[in-house]
Structures are given as structure tokens and as C-alpha cells.
Amino acid sequence: MISETVLSWQRPLQSWQQLQASAIRDPAILLARLQLPMEWLPAARLAAEQFALRVPEPFLARIQPGDPNDPLLRQVLPLAIEMEQIPGFVADPVGDQAAMVEPGILQKYAGRVLLVATGACAVHCRYCFRRHFPYTQANASTAHWQTALTVIAADSSIKEVILSGGDPLSLSDDRLNELIQALLAIPHVQRLRLHTRLPVVIPQRITPALLNMLSHTRLQTIMVIHANHPNEIDATLRSALTSLRHSGVTLLNQSVLLRGINDDVATLVSLSEALFACGVLPYYLHQLDKVQGAAHFEVDADTARTLHAAVRDCLPGYLVPRLVKEIPGMAAKLPL
Ligand SMILES: *Cc1c(COP(=O)(O)O)cnc(C)c1O
Ligand code: SF4
Question: Which numbered atom of ligand 2 lies nearest the CA of 128?
């Protein structure tokens, strides 16, 4: 049962759809709202032409105004440095184009497929490896879902379907339900996994209808959220995660190791502890994918290993995320 108190924070607020639709897209508004220098505007505008700015209000509320180094701001603010061409940083660093068996479906690893359920995201993360992904081709029309479902139904080795994107929770509950019902009809599918940053950036997305949908299914449901810094975890997110857990959803987190944001032991340790306090286990700490425009976030492999070893010395094993890197063509994500 979901108690009234758990959900009370949702009642007087805007709906998640309104919060998603009203996300800040204009760099001038972002700078003004956060009391940041307007000299940054021309560069921010240029960088946002390559990959649009998008910051929803609940995430903005966790950014400290006037602090140019705020770890949440750094994840979303378009910068001039993104436009520099750096050798080795390319449009499709993880080989998604090659792995796409049909539009919208990625089959790289045994037993599981990844479905690009939608191209849309509620937030735009500057380091995103999909920032140049051709979502309009890879997307998410009902026709593409049909093709993907046919592929899944024809291959009984597929035990787990991962909904990704974009962000699958940017779909409406109705659309999501359509997809889940179709997957339920495929007997060999046992697990449903959602890779989503939406609960973090708009916790109001965890609606009673969604909780109901996820708890009333024969599929084991896993949600992999995406938080990079402990400041992303506030009371609203904590309530949302608690209700997910009460609905029987297994909660995991993946982070990206990002220079200037979470590349220090204290931050990584406190992130793991803050996640577990909300019932979330740290799963992956990804080495940045070398996507064009994100070179300034890179932490080199040796530094990453040293950091990870130091984190391991501070925490119980179950709170240490696996440090991994994605190498195109490998059968799994590679431990560093
Ligand atoms: C990361 C990824 C997965 C999931 O890998 P796990 O190791 O099971 O978390 C599945 N498919 C694709 C295409 C991926 O990129
Ligand atoms: S939410 Fe995920 S897919 Fe969307 S921009 Fe951020 S990292 Fe990329």
C-alpha cells in the first residue's frame, strides 16, 4: 500500500508533464535565474545550438545560485569549450549505429536488448554520449516499437528488455503501459529494466499510476536511475524512491565519472551513502564515453582507477559501483 503521507508532496504541485514542458531552454533565463554572468551568454547560445539546453525546475532548485562551479550546474550549462574539436572524441563513441539491428533496438549483450523507447529527455546533460544520436531515425514511433517487439518475440534468448532512450519515463503512463503490456505478452521476457534520469530531475514523475503499473506485472522490474552527485538527492527524490521501493522495484544507480563534478573520493563516497539511504544500490560508475563536445569532462583511466580504489577503501563492497568502460564490440561493459 502506498500511504497518503508518502504521496502528499505531489498534491499541490505542478504535474510532471507541466514541469517537463516548462523546463528552461533559454540560456539567458538560466543565467539570470542563477545570478551568473551574462558574459557567458553568447558562448552558451552557440553551444546550445549543437545540443539544446534543457533544465527542469526541480533540478534547477538544487543548484546554488551564484556558484559557477556548482556540480549540478556544470552538468547542464552549455560552454564554449564544447565546440572545440578534440582528436578521439567522436559523434558515436559506443558504436550504437552498428549495434542497431532494427531502428530503435540495440542488441549488444547476451540475454538482453535495449529499446530506444523515445528520443526525448527531461534534462540535457552536456556529457551525454547520445548528444549526437539521430533520434529521429532511431525513434520511437509506434511502428518502430512493433518492429522491436517482433525482434524480441522471435528470440527466446532475450530474458530482459531495457527501456532506454532518451528517457523512457518521458513517455506518458498510457504509452508506457502499451509497451509493457506488449512485452508481457512475450513469455520469455522475464525482466523489465528502465534506464531513466527522470526520477532524479523531476521526482514528480513517480505518479501513483506509474507505481501501480510497475507493481502489477509478472515482470521483475529494475529501475536504474542516474545521479552523479549527492546534491542531486533531495527530500522529494527520497520520497519518490521510497514509493518505488514499496512497489517492489529494484533500484540501482549509474553515474558518469566527470571532471570537476564528482572526481574526488569524498563526493563519490557521499553519493553512494546518500543513494543507499534512499534504498538505491550503486551499480555502475562509467568512464566517460568519448563523445564530441565532452572532452573537458574526461578523467583519465589511471586517475579513475586510483579514485575507485580509494572509494573501495572507505565503503562496504555493496556500496562500491563497478568502474566500467564501454568498448564497441565487446560482450559486456569492461571493468577498468
Ligand atoms: C549498457 C547496455 C546494456 C546493459 O548492460 P548491463 O551490463 O546489463 O547493465 C544493454 N544493452 C546495451 C546496448 C547497453 O549499452
Ligand atoms: S538524461 Fe541520459 S540520455 Fe538524456 S541527456 Fe542526460 S545522460 Fe543523455
Answer: 8
